[in-house]
């Protein structure tokens, strides 16, 4: 009996969440679920060719150039035609780091590790779209500079 009461209480509160949907979901532009929103325009991919700061040391860097029509499949890896060890002399692109040549046991391979083959699993280009949610991220360097007793 008590379980049923709890179940009803949980159901009740989730109904309240659904009712407040329009106010909650910024990703849908605060439009109620059953209404169709005006679609966003297609934003431009940033193509400044300037490498961006990483948020933390092991972050996969975002791609600072367009990747339209760069084929990555069983037969070809367009990214590696510029970023592989042997191509950087000609392309002047930064070489994929040494982790891309390591297998999961930490052994160094002669060529790109299969687990790093599909670059866009981890690396993505950026568009000039305005952010849909606020971001309060603070770089660790800033945090370390704050006196110990202040709130971030
Ligand atoms: C025609 C050569 C070329 C191709 C093809 C290419 N890149 Fe690049 N890439 C560059 C160059 C040059 C840079 C250095 C910054 C710049 O000039 O854009 C770069 C920068 C990057 C960076 C930033 C590195 C950092 O340290 O910030 C990433 C990540 C990257 N590319 C990923 C990719 C991926 C993924 C692909 C395939 C979808 C790709 N690139 C295809 C030439 C290339
Ligand atoms: C499983 C995730 C993953 C995949 C797949 C992957 N990368 Fe990375 N990449 C990373 C991470 C994490 C870093 C930063 C730390 C490091 O160097 O390992 C990085 C770093 C880089 C850098 C900067 C190297 C440097 O020394 O500054 C380039 C360029 C790059 N990747 C290109 C590529 C390309 C091209 C591919 C596809 C062939 C690829 N990556 C596939 C995760 C990945």
UniProtKB/TrEMBL annotation:
Q: What's in the keyword line of the UniProt record?
A: Electron transport, Heme, Iron, Metal-binding, Periplasm, Signal, Transport
Kindly give the InterPro entries that the UniProt entry links to this protein.
Multihaem_cyt_sf, NapB
A cellular component term from Gene Ontology for this protein is: periplasmic space
Q: Where does this protein hold heme c 2?
A: 100, 119, 122-123
A Pfam family that this protein carries is NapB
Family, as annotated: Belongs to the NapB family.
| Region forming the signal peptide | 1-19
Location within or outside the cell: Periplasm
Residues holding heme c 1: 65, 79, 82-83
The identity of this protein, by name, is Periplasmic nitrate reductase, electron transfer subunit
GO MF: metal ion binding
Q: Does the keyword Cell membrane apply?
A: no
Q: How is it modified after translation?
A: Binds 2 heme C groups per subunit.
**Cited function:** Electron transfer subunit of the periplasmic nitrate reductase complex NapAB. Receives electrons from the membrane-anchored tetraheme c-type NapC protein and transfers these to NapA subunit, thus allowing electron flow between membrane and periplasm. Essential for periplasmic nitrate reduction with nitrate as the terminal electron acceptor.
Which processes are annotated in GO (biological process)?
Answer: anaerobic respiration
What organism, scientifically named, is this protein from? Halomonas cerina
Subunit description: Component of the periplasmic nitrate reductase NapAB complex composed of NapA and NapB.
